[in-house]
Amino acid sequence: MNAAYVLKLVVGALAVIASVNGWSQTSEPGNPSRSTGIGPNTVRGTASAANRALRKQLYAALAKRSEIDAGSISITAKDGIVTVNGTVPDAEQLDEVTSIVKSVQGVVSVVNRLTIQRPLSQ
Question: Which segments carry the region annotation Disordered (predicted)?
Answer without folding.
Answer: 23-46
